[in-house]
Design goal:
7-stranded mixed β-sheet; about 400 residues; 21 strands; 2 domains; globular; FAD/NAD(P)-binding domain
Length: about 400
């Protein structure tokens, strides 16, 4: 394994693969270590938001990305007591791709890998779990793999998600997360463009994401209730789901094993770096699935890191003194989005779960968005573009054979 590297990236998720592409594009010699043998893991974040497609467009990759199979979400509706309210409209956004692209995360990661591989400095190693960081004289100088191999680099980026090994180094501020999610999918009629739907009934909340031939579904439950709900088998769960979504065909939901649990975390590191090491994406801040913004926030982190660090790293400079600039740049949008997620959890989701059938009308703000169409761009913009979105400013070095 190569030992004279500019950058090691731990984790081949969205943040890691985008960072690998950008740093290799700038002329750095990059090694990405991914612990799994492939990218195929179901019910990972599959929403590629307009903010991410802006980044792809700036890189000249958007057309090739959209040539891959995907579905488009242009609107979001709330359904309660048999009535529907339109609460968000992404098509009103002034951006190159005014919709959410629904693409399995493994396809998105395959795409980033293929595009990064044109650069001679990029290398991806699968089935290579990292055991720990290597330190010398108070500085991280590389990683030790679980097979005992030691690999050194001038900089290491931790992009290995909410279970990151960097979380054993940096303190983590835990925020309240009173919910979990059970994921499943059911068939839908092809050709009906339904967008994103939030369905409420019987104390249940279901989020439906249109995937052309099926619904990807999120059943929101109180934190820690998954075992209690699944103990009685699938029928009681089907009844609860039917109360919220009476027109949803649940025939594909046959066993409790068809439900996949996501234990929701909401937290952030209080420090993202030390000499030789930087954490980005879910490693630095675990997001709630509310709004599906996790992937896109991670992508923005990777772009910010490359904007600050890629050029000096490619020039052989020491970047230790620059690492905290990334956290400084990305902390405000992280706090803003996590704060919004907490408000939605505490003031909307939790009261619905607690009050059950007593919820008869949607919140006033939802009724306003439905009645005044121009207002729908507000939630569309917050979800689709976020705040302080990044623009690619890292250089592109000439391609070498």
């Amino acid at each position: 394994m190569a030992s004279e590297l500019d950058l090691i990236i731990v984790g081949g998720g969205p943040a890691g693969m985008m960072a690998g592409l950008l740093f290799a594009r700038a002329g750095c010699k990059v090694q990405v270590f991914e612990k799994h043998a492939d990218f195929f893991r179901d019910f990972r974040g599959d929403t590629v938001h307009p903010s991410t497609m802006e980044i792809l467009d700036q890189l000249g990759l958007l057309e090739r990305f959209l040539a891959r199979p995907h579905s488009k979400i242009r609107t979001a509706d709330l359904q309660l007591a048999g009535k529907r309210w339109r609460v968000a409209d992404f098509s009103r956004l002034r951006t190159v791709a005014p919709f959410i692209a629904m693409m399995p995360q493994w396809d998105f990661l395959d795409f980033l890998r293929d595009e990064a591989s044109i650069y001679s400095g990029f290398n991806l190693a699968m089935s290579m779990p990292v055991e720990r960081f290597l330190e010398e004289q108070g500085r991280v100088v590389g990683v030790r793999l679980k097979d005992g191999t030691e690999v050194r680099s001038r900089l290491t980026i931790a992009a290995d998600g909410r279970t990151s090994i960097a979380r054993g180094i940096f303190p983590v501020e835990k925020l309240a997360a009173p919910i979990d999610v059970l994921w499943f999918q059911v068939a839908k009629e092809r050709g009906s463009d339904e967008g994103l739907r939030f369905m409420i009934g019987g104390g249940a909340i279901i989020v439906l994401m249109d995937r052309a031939t099926y619904w990807q579904c999120a059943f929101v439950i109180p934190k820690g209730d998954a075992e209690k709900l699944t103990t009685g088998g699938i029928e009681p769960i089907r009844k609860r789901l039917a109360a919220a979504a009476p027109d949803l065909d649940l025939s594909d939901l046959k066993e409790v094993t068809d439900l996949k649990l996501l234990s929701v975390q909401l937290d952030r590191m209080t420090c993202w770096s030390e000499p030789g090491l930087l954490a980005i994406g879910d490693s630095a801040h675990a997001m709630s699935p509310i709004g599906g913004v996790g992937i896109n926030l991670a992508i923005q982190d990777a772009v910010a890191a490359a904007n600050v660090l890629a050029a000096p790293l490619a020039e052989g400079k020491t970047v230790d003194s620059m690492l905290d600039q990334v956290r400084h740049r990305r902390l405000f949008p992280t706090r803003f989005i996590q704060g919004a997620q907490r408000i939605i959890q505490d003031r909307i989701i939790w009261p619905i779960l607690r009050q059950g059938d007593r919820i008869e009308r949607p919140p006033l703000i939802a009724r306003l968005f439905d009645r005044f169409a121009p207002l729908r761009v507000i939630p569309g913009r917050l979800m689709g573009l976020g705040v302080r979105r990044e623009r690619v400013r890292s250089p592109e070095a000439p391609l070498r054979p």
